[in-house]
Amino acid sequence: MNGADVDARGLRCPEPVLRTRKRLAETPGAFTVLVDNPAARDNVRRFAQTSGCSVEVVERDGEFLVSITPGEGAGPVAAEKPCPASAGAACTPAVLLITSDELGTGSHELGATLIKSFLYACAQGDDVPGTVILMNGGVKLATENDETVEHLLALCERGCEVLACGTCLDYFGLADRLRAGRVSNMYEIQSKLVGAPRMLSL
Amino acid sequence: MGPGDLEQILQGLPYDDVPELLTSVRDGEDAGVYLLSERLAIVQTVDFFPPIVDDPATFGRIAAANALSDIYAMGGRPLTAMNLVAWPCGLDLGVLEEILRGGREKVREAGAVIVGGHSIEDDEIKYGMSVTGVVDPERMTAISGARPGDMLVLTKPLGTGILATALKAGLVGEADMNEAIDSMCALNGPAADALSRVGVSACTDVTGFGLVGHLYSMVRAGAVATDIWASEVPLFERTIDMAALGMVPELRFKESEGFGSVEVAAPRTDPLVVDTLFDPQTSGGLLAAVAPGDAEALIGELRAGPCPRAAVIGKITDGLEVRVRILDRRRD
Q: Is the ipTM reported for this complex over the cut 0.95?
C-alpha cells in the first residue's frame, strides 16, 4: 500500500499525529495518512475528528490507510476551547502578536494608555482579529491590568482566541493569574504565526 | 508487552514452585514474596523506563516512586534499593547525577537506603530500581483475594500516559501537568498504610497495563469479576483534551488476549474516557478491593490525607464470562 499523502509508517506516537496536523494546517483539501500500528491509527482518527474532519480507515496487510476530509471550517484545533463563545464566527483571519504591555516607545505612560485604547478599539471594532498572541511583557495585559483584561475578555466573547505564552507567564510569576484567554506554548504559537494569512505585530 | 503476551511466554517456561514462594508469577503479582521465617518474608521488585519528563531530578523521583510502589502494593515495607541505569555514551553526567539525586530523595523518604546499582551503555536513557522489602506474611496484600461485593478503591487519578505523550509532542508543558507530576512523584506508602489499617481483600498498583488491565489481573487471580463506573474514575486535568488531540499512547491491554473478557456497556460515556481507563500509568495509584462497610471511612481518610482524589470506582461481582464490565455510572 503506497501513494499516501503522509507516510507515517515506522513512526511511534505522537509523531504520526504531528505530521497529520502539519499537513492539515498547510495544505487545503482531503488527504490520506498511512500508518502501521493500531495506536497511530486511533490517534490520527481522534485528532482528525476533533479537528472537524470526517475520517475513513481501510486496513490492508497490517497497515492502515486513513482518509481525512476536512469539514466546514476545519483546521488544526487548539488544545482547549479558547473562550465561552464559539471561535471564529465573526473574526478576520488576522493574528495579532503583542510583545509588551505598552504600545510603542517614547513614553511609558503614553504607551500604557495607547495599548489600552488599542485593545478597546479592537474589542469594539467591526473586524475582530481571529487570534491575539501575548508574549514577553504582553502577558501582563491578560493578568495584572484590570482594564486590558476586560477588553481581552470582550474580544474572547466575540470569538477571538487569546493565547498567552506559558514560558512568559512563568517568567513573570503570573502562571496562576491568567484571567483572559488560555495558556499556550511555543509549538502552537509558532504554528499560528507561521500559518497566519495576516500577522500584525505590536 | 501486554499481559497476554507475557502469559504466553511464561506458560512455555518451567515454573519453580517452591514452598517458600508465596506469590505466583502467573497471577501477575506486583512483586515476588519469599518466606524467610514464620513471621517474615522478603518482597522483591524491579522496574525501569526511559524519561517521561524533561527535568532529570523529577524523572528520578518518579522512577523511584514507581519502583517502590510494588512493595507497597504487597503491603510491604521497603528496606533497600539498587539503581539501574542505561546511559548513552558522551551524555552529560551532570544530568545522571540529578536523576540519581531525585531517586535517592524518594528512597530516603520511604525510609529505605540505596545499597548499590548497575549501569550499562545504551542509545536511550533508562533509569529505575530494584527494591527489596519485608512483609509479615499474615498481613500481605495479594492480588488474588477480591470477593464479590467488595468495593474498588483507586488512590490516584488516571492520565499520566496521555499527558506524557502530549508533553513529548509539545502540546503541554510541565507547568500544565503539575497535578500529574506531583502525583507520579508521590509515594504510595501513606496510602498503603491507610489500606492496611482498614484491611483489604486484594491490592495491586496501576502501571503499564492501565486500570482495566490491572483490574483484569486482579479479578482473574481471584476468580471473580468486576464493574467499573466510568463517571466515578478520577482523571488528571487536561487528559481528555489531549486524548482528543490524538495523544493516547499504545494501549497495550487492548491489544492483548485479556481484552476479550472486557465488555464496554457505557453508551453515555465519552469514548475518550473509556480509552483513558486503558491508559498505561507511570507511578499510578493503588487499586484495592475492600469490604463494602469499610469503603466510605477509608475514602474519607485517604482524601483528608495522602490522596485528595481517591475514589470508589466500582465493585467486585461474581460474573464468569465477562471479567471486567465498564458501566456509565455507579450501580450498587
A: no
